[in-house]
Amino acid sequence: MPNKTNARQEISGAREELLRFAPVAEAVAILLKPHAEVVIHDLTTQTIAYIANNLSRREVGNSSLADLKDIGALDTDVIGPYRKTNFDGRQLKSITSVLRDPAGDPLGLLCINFDIAPIEAARDALSLLAAFQDGGAQPAALFRADWQETVNAAIADFLGERGLAASALAKDDHAALIEMLEQEGYFSIRNLVPYLSRLLGISRATVYKHLREARQTKIRKTMS
Amino acid sequence: MPNKTNARQEISGAREELLRFAPVAEAVAILLKPHAEVVIHDLTTQTIAYIANNLSRREVGNSSLADLKDIGALDTDVIGPYRKTNFDGRQLKSITSVLRDPAGDPLGLLCINFDIAPIEAARDALSLLAAFQDGGAQPAALFRADWQETVNAAIADFLGERGLAASALAKDDHAALIEMLEQEGYFSIRNLVPYLSRLLGISRATVYKHLREARQTKIRKTMS
DNA sequence: TCTATATTTGACAGTTTGTCAAATTCTCTC
DNA sequence: GAGAGAATTTGACAAACTGTCAAATATAGA
Questions:
Q1: From the CA of A197, how many Å to the C1' of C21?
Q2: What's the rounded Cα separation, in Å, for the pair A93 and A112?
Q3: Mind listing the pLDDT tens digit for each residue in B196-214?
Q4: By residue range, what is the domain housing residue B42?
Q5: CB neighbourhood size of B39 (10 A)
Q6: By the CB < 8 Å criterion, does B24 face chain A?
Q7: pLDDT tens digits, A47-83
């Protein structure tokens, strides 16, 4: 931390430091133009410090991101890629890198949001043409012998969408994660419950409790 | 089969009948040019009656196809689509229609072989670009809540590769099917064994027997 | 037809699944 | 920081599922 005269100076120092990444952001945005936006978040003020190729209609100075406290707990400096939905419904593939000061404290985030909708559309068109069956041939190849990886991928996806960090997730999230897995049908995999309970560090009984709740809300939804 | 007057007439009659489909074969081949070949098989002589846009380097008069006896048992007149490998390794998407005489007896087959390699290559390139993770994100989306459909797709795939028809498969095939499912990891789906035994019309015990064998050959392979 | 092989049947022990009540821990509020 | 209320763990349990087995039966090939 360079100068300590007062808080305001520290903040503007952080912003200045962050803006050194602006050309990088610009370069990435141009490379992928017009499909990607690059945003630099200032963690000291919780605002947006820079935007290249604005897709999400946010502006410099806007407050950004909800929960950033968790980032300190991160083991890596790269988060994602994870899926994000733009205000207009487009699917974005997002990846975030953590920008730290010399002391190693998180200063900001550089977030690349890549609009993959057109790519997915093209891929799907080709898929359809190449597909056997009515389009259902791929699962066979993609259903891994190693179902744990499949589950892990689903969990990683979930974590990516919500914020982050592997094992350090609040117990409120457990219920949501389990509900998601249930809705995607993962519990017809053998031994998933004990595996999950070990993974999340909670008891089997709790997993079953969340499961029961998830199934009941599902029923409620079905009836309404 | 260089035969007597009687038979020869019958045979040439069949061929003539089949050649009426030649323009259709030609038209399909031209539509998909240069990616598809269309072959008309003569079932009465087990030879090739016509080829449009030859990809597989076979020629008219060549003997064709190994097992055609099964076709009589078919419930539909369209077989596939199923995957086929060309002599040069290219993957072909094949679909076959049965050509019958007015009495309803199978006379020939019209087989369309579509080279999907370039399409798959393009799709995969796009997939990679759109992919989350290192390419393993899709299973999550493709792992259906309805695992039965996933299994059915795998089985249908298997059936397509070997020849055909749903429930009418020899018991030798059971072992192969189960081995395939085991190797792809499908038996970590709950209740798969009873489901399969019902589906194949064999007993649970037999399924387990095949499973045991499949697992032992796997071990043998692993050790060698 | 007879023999050798494979399948079915029914029974069984071992696991896994899902639920429960009591004991414990956690989380608020005061 | 003490205590009420909620959530979680623990350990136990019945029910369901898994995998194996031996005897009875069916099937295929000589």
A1: 21
A2: 8
A3: 888 778 888 899 998 888 8
A4: 5-118
A5: 27
A6: no
A7: 778 888 877 665 665 554 433 434 444 456 777 676 6
